[in-house]
Design goal:
This protein is mainly α. It has one domain. About 75% of the residues lie in helices and about 0% in strands. It is built from 4 helices and no strands.
């Protein structure tokens, strides 16, 4: 069976990212690795080459469960994407307060045009 501890070197993660986001990326990578190992073992079993070691399978599923739980906790805490959305909301609030309704409508229209042009 595949050893769960033989992961290759970690991919380079941008040093500018917050620690929570970096951990979330690492968790996603680890989850994908375990799922791939389980799928590979199952394919080998289906081909009749060898059976899946039940102890290994249990350890793999347990590790997967724990990683998914940690990932869920990070997401619930509100990692980078949510922070960025909150910053955008705050920025919109500040700009809206500082501009009269006519100017705000012009800014909003320009932003929508830019968004459509850039395919956002």
């Amino acid at each position: 069976m595949t050893d769960l501890h033989n992961a290759g070197p970690l991919a380079a993660i941008s040093p500018g990212l917050p620690e929570d986001q970096r951990r979330l990326i690492e968790l996603d990578d680890d989850i994908a690795k375990i799922r791939t190992q389980i799928a590979t073992a199952d394919l080998a079993r289906q081909r009749g080459q060898k059976s899946i070691d039940p102890d290994w399978f249990h350890r793999a599923r347990t590790a997967l469960r724990h990683l998914c739980r940690e990932r869920s906790e990070l997401l619930a805490k509100g990692t980078g994407r949510r922070r960025r959305e909150k910053l955008k909301d705050a920025l919109i609030g500040v700009l809206r307060e500082r501009h009269d309704p006519a100017t705000w409508d012009g800014i909003l229209a320009e932003a929508q045009i830019r968004s459509e042009r850039e395919g956002l």
